């Protein structure tokens, strides 16, 4: 082959190779080529994923749990710590009256409460006869002074005559049968009890048609739990009705 023919063949060969590569790149179905590429990329991702140090899953159950708030079908359940805190503030609250204090807290033994009610009823029915049986005989003078103070103080503090007349025993029995004796007090209420090792001190507020009288009764815990002191602590001109 001469040099002239050799020079013509080389350009033709190069042109043919370029044409074939271009045709292969533009082919509609380069499956083998892209399959190899995708496979290589997938392997690369898997290798990277395996080499990453992932953190430990925390409370994974929350990822599938329904956290939406729904109305409670029953009572709310409190934790023990919350219950302990609430128990510290579980002390009941009692009404408070200015000038008198907190009202009775139902903390008297039944025997003393019965005598307390008995004395108040007896004073209201007929103050001259009956209340003394609730007073310790050693301290009967306390009842005598109370009777004197309430009769004198009624006119002085409530500006009215004492409403209950004193009768002889026979007259009293007749009046009682005829239900002709006016009650001195219409109602009363008890205050919070002050208790020591030896006695109960109980405030009582009496309500009459002419006003209010506050009395402090002291019951001895021994000797049949009778009254050992009666003291008037306050007068108020108030219409009780």
Q: Quick check: average pLDDT? A: 79
Summarize the helix and strand pattern as letters.
HHHEEHHHEEEEE
Tally of helical segments: 6
Q: What is the 3D shape?
A: rod-shaped
Major sheet attributes: 5 strands, antiparallel
Rg from Cα: 52 Å
Structure at a glance:
The chain is of the alpha+beta class and 241 residues long.
Structure description:
By secondary structure, the protein is of the alpha+beta class. The chain is 40% helix and 16% strand. It is built from six helices and seven strands. It has helices spanning 3-25, 31-51, 80-88, 110-125, 140-158, 169-177; strands at 96-97, 101-102, 187-190, 194-195, 199-207, 212-220, 227-236. Strands 3, 4, 5, 6 and 7 form a five-stranded antiparallel β-sheet that branches. Strand 6 (212-220) and strand 7 (227-236) form a beta hairpin. The termini are far apart.
């Amino acid at each position: 082959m001469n040099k002239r023919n050799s020079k013509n063949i080389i350009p033709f060969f190069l042109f043919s190779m370029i044409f074939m590569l271009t045709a292969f790149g533009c082919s509609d179905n380069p499956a083998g080529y892209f399959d190899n590429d995708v496979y290589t990329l997938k392997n690369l991702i898997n290798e990277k994923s395996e080499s990453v140090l992932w953190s430990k899953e925390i409370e994974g159950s929350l990822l599938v749990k329904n956290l939406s708030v729904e109305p409670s079908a029953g009572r709310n359940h409190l934790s023990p710590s919350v219950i302990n805190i609430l128990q510290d503030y579980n002390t009941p609250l009692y009404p408070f009256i200015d000038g008198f204090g907190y009202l009775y807290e139902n903390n008297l033994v039944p025997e003393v409460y019965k005598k307390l009610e008995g004395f108040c009823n007896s004073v209201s029915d007929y103050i001259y006869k009956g209340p003394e049986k609730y007073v310790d005989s050693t301290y009967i003078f306390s009842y005598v002074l109370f009777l004197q103070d309430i009769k004198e103080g009624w006119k002085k503090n409530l500006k009215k005559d004492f409403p209950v007349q004193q009768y002889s025993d026979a007259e009293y029995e007749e009046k009682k049968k005829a239900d002709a004796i006016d009650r001195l007090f219409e109602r009363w209420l008890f205050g919070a009890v002050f208790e020591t090792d030896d006695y109960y001190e109980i405030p009582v507020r009496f309500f009459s048609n002419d006003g209010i009288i506050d009395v402090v009764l002291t019951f001895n815990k021994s000797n049949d739990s009778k009254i050992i002191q009666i003291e008037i602590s306050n007068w108020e001109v108030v219409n009780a009705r």
